[in-house]
């Protein structure tokens, strides 16, 4: 820390992203990326004409991309905001849309408390039960902003659209921000609620189901007023928030929807195969509808399993928070990668005979 840092940031705890190791090739199942490459259309778009225009600033309103998203979700361009990853949008939400404080689940995306602390927003949490689920009622009539990841981060447990609608209806004077980073892997989206409830803001990303984590592209869908607030913050911080290549990649990805739908279906099928394999090895998994499983075994502590898998070339995620320390979070990769995970896990636990699919 330099002597120049403003006092208010001295105690700021930053977010710790998942490892991005450079030292060796791992089977990388730790940051919920897609194991599949972007579609051919996306690759062609980023190699094409836009690359030759990199001497020019991009369109700050990303009009082509905004229109394509509006079209895809049946909304108007005034209902769509795009930015440099959904983290960027969540940052704006905590910065400006939590005037009376914010509540999020006790177990959820680790960035929420970081943003709340960064922007000095008072926060509290909805408790989770033994199975790491929270009661949706804990978000009704709260008198502050609600931030919900749906499916929830780390657990993959999802609320039904009707439950989100009840939360929105009971908090008419506060935003209900639904972070749908993982929604395309089997959960119900709250996007249809955007027309009905002016306080619902849905935040999504191209990082997971659209195989573009490296391009950094997120978007929000909401009432024209909420979207105008986000645009105001964009123009107050970084008007050129989305580079040309990412804008072109986004448009091309939306044109290749069938490719991404197929990949999402494949990941769901692999998730269920992997769940069966882990359960056969004695693991318990949360009922995840995301592109990851949160799993634990009575035979080995979460941290130990993480370290021993890493030593065998497989990277999963372990969180040291009290509620999560027994668990590991395993991103769903290709079927071959998941076979390797099950094989190595079985070997570590001395349960070689227990893998059903071999
Ligand atoms: N929300 C949740 C719940 C996430 O898990 C992530 C990914 N770590 C994000 C948002 C951020 O996604 P991105 O910034 O890549 O769009």
Describe the structure.
- The protein is α/β, with parallel strands linked by helices.
- It has helices at residues 40-47, 49-52, 63-73, 86-96, 111-118, 161-170, 193-196, 224-237, 244-255, 257-280, 302-311, 335-348, and strands at 27-28, 80-83, 102-105, 123-126, 145-149, 176-179, 200-205, 218-221, 284-285, 292-296, 314-315, 328-331.
- The strands form three sheets. Strands 2-8-7-6-5-3-4 form a seven-stranded mixed β-sheet, sandwiched between helices. A three-stranded antiparallel β-sheet has the order 9-10-12.
- The model has no long low-confidence stretch (mean pLDDT 96).
- It binds 4'-deoxy-4'-aminopyridoxal-5'-phosphate (PMP).
- 4'-deoxy-4'-aminopyridoxal-5'-phosphate is lined by residues 85-87, 109, 149, 153, 179, 181, 205, 207, 213, 218.
In brief:
The chain is an alpha/beta fold.
Number of strands: 12
Bound molecules: 4'-deoxy-4'-aminopyridoxal-5'-phosphate
As residue ranges, the low-confidence spans are: none
Beta-strand residue fraction: 5-15%
Mean pLDDT across every amino acid position: 96
Which class of secondary structure composition applies to the elements? alpha/beta
Helix content: 25-40%
Radius of gyration: 21 Å
Shape: globular
Output the number of helix runs: 12
| Major β-sheet strand ordering | 2-8-7-6-5-3-4
SSE ordering: EHHHEHEHEEHEHEEHHHEEHEEH
Distance between the termini: 53 Å
Major β-sheet annotation: 7 strands, mixed
Helix/strand layout:
Layout: E1 27-28, H1 40-47, H2 49-52, H3 63-73, E2 80-83, H4 86-96, E3 102-105, H5 111-118, E4 123-126, E5 145-149, H6 161-170, E6 176-179, H7 193-196, E7 200-205, E8 218-221, H8 224-237, H9 244-255, H10 257-280, E9 284-285, E10 292-296, H11 302-311, E11 314-315, E12 328-331, H12 335-348
Parallel strand pairs: 1-11, 3-4, 3-5, 5-6, 6-7
Antiparallel strand pairs: 2-8, 7-8, 9-10, 10-12
Helix pairs in contact: 1-9, 3-9, 4-5, 4-8, 10-12
